Amino acid sequence: MKPVIGTKIAEDLKGQVSVLTYASIDSTNDEARRYIQAGLIGPTLFIAEEQTGGKGRLGRSFYSPENAGIYMSLAYPLRASYTDALRVTAKTAVSCLRGLQANVNAALSIKWVNDLYFGDRKAAGILVESVPKGAGILWVIIGIGINLTDAGFPEELQDIAVSLHAENADRNAIITSIMKELLWELRHLSDTTYLETYRAFSNVLGENIRFGTAPDFKHGKAVAIDDNGALVVETEDGRTEVLSSGEITVRRDRT
Asked: 193-251: per-residue pLDDT in tens?
């Protein structure tokens, strides 16, 4: 794959975001947090060729071998309502989908709330964290990891993760495409047109799912995605629940 060239990406995104690149780092999300705590001023994109401690949701790790994917985090200051801020993760998923569609030939879908799937396995993940800084400013750290090539997944990931088989992909072009989409969405958080794409490419709507936490899992059917990106579920006992965050498992074995 073509190397990531921070100066080229910065030029393509001139006036919108600063860009920092690393050959290897523990975690781009952690680096973004360190910069914010040290007094970061404006939107900044952190990109690494490799992560030694890539972060996933719920304390999991994200496999991030050298020269095999895209590992980046955007630090972005928000002045937004709580409702608008809830849309960041879903807007990021749509931005990643659109950016990849423009550069990679792969049929992708979105697993609520934050993963991109290629077939029945995960090809990209999103981790959104926040850092309050006072005076009405909430910094969000938007971590994005995309498996572009098969670098030999560990055994525990072989049935879960998949690459996009995009060995000849131009990562600079992909990153720029995703960031142009995402930066627009972040400047227009109250705009809900992204939901057309989010719903159209959902791989959970109409499916039976498991949600909640062990050992008290619940079961139901995903019937809608509301205007805030929350998942509407009809439970087995006939109630309706609205999930704004959390983990779900699709259960296609249930009728």
From this structure: 999 999 999 999 999 999 988 888 999 999 999 988 999 999 999 999 999 888 899 98
Residue with tokens 């709507």: 205
Closest CA to 171 of 147, 196, 202: 147
CATH at 53:
3.30.930.10
Query: Using one digit for the tens of pLDDT, what is the confidence trace for 52-98?
Result: 977 666 556 677 778 889 999 999 999 877 778 889 999 999 999 99
Q: What is the dihedral of CA 209, 213, 214, 215, to 10 degrees?
A: -90
The domain of 160 spans: 6-200
Residues 110 and 92 in one domain: yes
Reported pTM: 0.93
Same domain, 135 and 55: yes
CB 59 within 8 A of CB 42: no
Which one, of 26, 22, 25, 21, lies nearest residue 53 by Cα? 26
Element (DSSP H or E) covering residue 29: helix 28-37
Domains of the chain: total? 2
> Do 177 and 12 form a contact (C-beta atoms < 8 A)?
no
